[in-house]
Structures are given as structure tokens and as C-alpha cells.
Automatic annotation (TrEMBL):
It comes from the Eukaryota. The lineage of its organism: Eukaryota, Fungi, Dikarya, Basidiomycota, Agaricomycotina. It comes from Mycena rosella. This is F-box domain-containing protein.
Length: 474
């Protein structure tokens, strides 16, 4: 009897389970039908963004590209790749917008070869001029990267800007390869690589009719043949002083030049003073312990110089600097109109009045001035010295520790001298103090008066709230 009851119970369980399955299958069928109806309604909808004309969407996509100082890469999480992964319509628009693909950064390192990605990307740019950053480092021995060079060469005729990070031997391989290089549109060239001994001069970039701007890092001018005569802008990194002077001789039409981290010459150069009649802007930046770039000023005469930026991080004998710089200025005046002096430390021993005997200077930026320097500087204002920056219109002091009272007196004196024929109107003043400076109401009052009188003056705008007594540029 027990077995009979057990079998009946089991049959009942099977029947109940079957009934539940039928019930849930019916629910599933209803849900599937509901989903199908809803999907049809959804597919019938047209999203507002898809109603935008394709040319407007293309422009929106273009505005989504990385900032100018960044580069596009084949990152699926960033534009333009990201835009092509949203939907079919956006992908079609992205792929049919050549401007989205006209700039690319492509890295080739050991174990990674993406020639097909480079080819696909550059092909999407169509006939749009290209801006390419190509980095080729640490390839396996015997790897010539021929597929990448072949792709690169096929599109070289469209390249307008080229930033090439490459070892010297790879650059030689590029030139020796069977590919036909052509750079009829190239305007900007940046080569940076490794140091090397004397090698034959490369000719790969010798025929670039539109080339105007060149940057070389660790490549002496003698290592590469370029149309030097037509260049107007040059940046040299890790060049010796002798190399820098050689470059200035090679580029007679140069207008703007920057030398960064000048390397030390094996022997102290004994050279005549070089006169360059067309150079209008010069920047010298030294980040190392030795101020090698400063030595270059001994050998330069720049009668057309209008803008000069001098920045260094090493310690310097200010008396020696005073002599070198004053002599240099005597060979550059009077055209010099803008000067930015950026030492990394505060300086004191400075013949302010003699150093700033710049009759045409209208824009001056000084970093890390000591209170002693600013005291001497403002004294020249208060003494109404007509030889001391008579045409100054824009003044900036950054990272300074001067007393507010002394500064306000000097600025007021120069401001009230604006009606004299000998002095220009001091229009803008930017003062950046160390964060521990105490800006009291009494200290700020003289600056507020200058602001109310018409001077555009700003003091630590980030550190002073507008609800308190502030001195903020209009």
C-alpha cells in the first residue's frame, strides 16, 4: 500500500509541475510578444540627435577630438574611434569625415606591429593633409619595420606635419629602403632621437618646398640635409653652443628660434660674434645644472630681436650674468619689445637700472624676483628715470616676496608719470605672490585706487576672493 501511495504522490507532483510549465510557457510567450511589439515601436522612433544633418554631426564629432596639444590615437575609448562604435549611423558619419582621421599618433615598439591600423587610419583621411606623430623604438634585432615604413611612404605625399621619434639607425634604414618618399606638403618637421657619432648627412627631407618649421633633438645640423634657406622657425634641443651658432648661420631667414637644454661643448668655443639680421624671437631654456645656453649670448648680435625669453633652473653668478646680458642687450637694442626672465631661484645681486636700459621694451615678465630686486626696480620708477623702461606697458612679477607698500608706491609713481611725453602708459600689471603673503585691507587699498583710476591690475586672483577687498583684472 505504501508503494501505491508513493507512486500516486509522484504522479501528482509531475502533473503539478507540468501545469506550472504550461503556465510559465504561456507567460513567456506573452512576454516575447510584448517585447516584439515594444521593439517595433522603439525601432519606429527617430532620436532627435539622428535628425541633425550629417554635416552638422561631422562638425560636432570634429569638436570632440583631443585638444590641439594632444594627439589622436587608436584608443577605442576616445574620439574618433569611440564615435564609430556608438551606432551604425554615427559610424557611417565618422568614417565619411576625413578631418577626423587627419591627425594620428602611432607607436611602434618591440612586439607590437600595427601597420594595418596605420593604413586604415590614413586611408580614412582621404586627401586631407596629414599630421603624424610616429614613434619607433626598441624593435627586435633584425626587425626593419618594413611594413610600417611602406605604409608611411605611401602616404608621405599628404603629410603636412611630421613628428618623428626614431633612432638614428632607423632613420638611415628609412632613407636606404626601396620606398619612394615624397614630402611636397610638409610644413612642420620634428625629429627627436638618440645621440650618435659622425655619420653621413641624410637626404630624405632635402626636397620639401613648403617646409618652414623644424625641431631637432640630439641631431646636429650637419647630420641632415634640409632646405635651411627657407626655414623661419627652429627649435633645437640638446645642441652644443657651437651647434646652435652653426644653425643660425644656416638659416638666414629665421624669425623665431628656441634652444632647450644646450649641451656643453667639449672645449670652450672661441668664436667671433655672429650677427643675424632677421631673428625676431629667441628663447633659451636650460633645465640642467649648468647654464650652457647663457654662454651663447656672448657670441650673438641680434639687431632685429623683438622678443626674448630666458629660462633656467641652475644656479648662476648674477654678476657674471649682468655682464653677459648687458653686453648682449647692447647688440640687440632698440627693437627688443618683450622680455621674459625665468630663473628657478630668487636673485638679488642685480644692477637693475643698468640691466633694464631697454628704450623700446613694452612687455616685461620676471619670475622669482627677491624683495631687494623689486625695491631697486620700484626705486627707478619713483625716481622717474627716463632711461628705465620708458615704454613699459605690461608688467608681470611671478613668485615674488616683495612688500606690498613698496610695490604700490613704485606703480603709482609710474602711473602718474603717464602724461609725461617720456613715458608710455603702464596699462596692465600682474603680481603673483607666494601663497603665505598676507593681503590686508590697508595693503590692498593703494592697488584698488590704481584699479579705479584705470590700471588693469591683478594680484593672486586665485587666492583672493571677490567678496573681500580684491585686486582683480578688469
Amino acid at each position: 500500500m505504501a508503494n501505491h501511495r508513493d507512486s500516486n504522490d509522484l504522479r501528482n507532483i509531475v502533473a503539478e509541475t507540468t501545469a506550472q510549465i504550461v503556465h510559465y510557457q504561456s507567460l513567456i510567450e506573452k512576454l516575447l510578444a510584448q517585447r516584439e511589439r515594444t521593439q517595433l515601436q522603439l525601432d519606429a522612433l527617430v532620436y532627435p540627435v539622428l535628425k541633425i544633418p550629417p554635416e552638422i554631426t561631422s562638425e560636432v564629432f570634429y569638436q570632440c577630438l583631443p585638444a590641439p596639444h594632444h594627439w589622436n590615437s587608436a584608443d577605442p575609448g576616445k574620439a574618433p574611434m569611440l564615435l564609430s562604435h556608438v551606432c551604425r549611423a554615427w559610424r557611417e558619419i565618422a568614417l565619411s569625415t576625413p578631418a577626423l582621421w587627419a591627425e594620428v599618433e602611432f607607436g611602434l615598439v618591440r612586439g607590437r606591429r600595427r601597420a594595418h591600423v596605420l593604413e586604415t587610419w590614413l586611408s580614412r583621411a582621404g586627401s586631407i593633409p596629414l599630421s603624424i606623430r610616429l614613434n619607433i623604438w626598441d624593435l627586435k634585432q633584425g626587425d626593419t619595420a618594413s611594413d610600417v615604413f611602406e605604409t608611411f611612404a605611401r602616404h608621405s605625399y599628404k603629410i603636412q606635419s611630421l613628428n618623428l621619434g626614431i633612432r638614428w639607425r632607423r632613420l638611415q634604414d628609412m632613407e636606404k629602403a626601396r620606398y619612394r618618399w615624397s614630402f611636397p606638403l610638409l610644413q612642420v618637421l620634428d625629429l627627436h632621437g638618440d645621440r650618435f657619432q659622425d655619420e653621413p648627412s641624410l637626404e630624405i627631407f632635402s626636397d620639401c618646398p613648403l617646409l618652414r618649421e623644424v625641431s631637432l633633438s640630439a641631431f646636429p645640423a650637419s647630420s641632415i640635409s634640409l632646405p635651411w634657406q627657407q626655414l623661419t622657425k627652429f627649435t633645437g634641443r640638446l645642441c652644443t653652443v657651437a651647434n646652435c651658432l652653426e644653425i643660425l648661420c644656416l638659416i638666414p631667414n629665421l624669425r623665431e628660434c628656441t634652444f632647450t637644454n644646450c649641451a656643453q661643448d667639449e672645449e670652450s668655443p672661441d668664436l667671433p660674434v655672429l650677427s643675424h639680421s632677421n631673428l625676431q624671437s629667441l628663447t633659451i631654456e636650460d633645465e640642467g645644472e649648468f647654464i650652457n645656453g647663457l654662454v651663447m649670448l656672448k657670441f650673438l648680435s641680434l639687431p632685429a630681436l623683438q622678443t626674448f625669453v630666458l629660462q633656467f633652473s641652475g644656479w648662476i653668478d648674477m654678476q657674471e650674468f649682468d655682464g653677459i646680458f648687458s653686453s648682449f642687450l647692447s647688440r640687440c637694442s632698440p627693437p627688443l619689445g618683450k622680455f621674459s626672465f625665468r630663473p628657478s631661484h630668487q636673485f638679488t645681486d642685480f644692477d637693475t637700472a643698468r640691466l633694464f636700459h631697454m628704450p623700446k621694451l613694452f612687455d616685461l615678465q620676471i619670475w622669482n624676483p627677491s624683495s631687494h630686486f623689486i625695491s631697486n626696480f620700484t626705486d627707478s620708477f619713483m625716481n622717474a628715470d627716463t632711461n628705465f623702461l620708458p615704454q613699459l606697458q605690461h608688467l608681470t612679477f611671478r613668485s615674488c616676496r616683495a612688500t606690498m607698500l613698496k610695490l604700490s608706491h613704485g606703480l603709482s609713481a609710474r602711473w602718474h608719470a603717464r602724461d609725461q611725453a617720456e613715458f608710455a602708459r603702464l596699462e596692465t600689471v600682474r603680481l603673483e605672490f607666494w601663497s603665505d603673503m598676507d593681503f590686508t585691507e590697508d595693503a590692498l587699498l593703494p592697488f584698488q585706487k590704481l584699479l579705479a583710476d584705470g590700471m588693469d591690475i591683478c594680484i593672486n586672483e586665485r587666492n583672493i576672493g571677490r567678496d573681500s577687498i580684491t585686486v582683480v583684472g578688469k
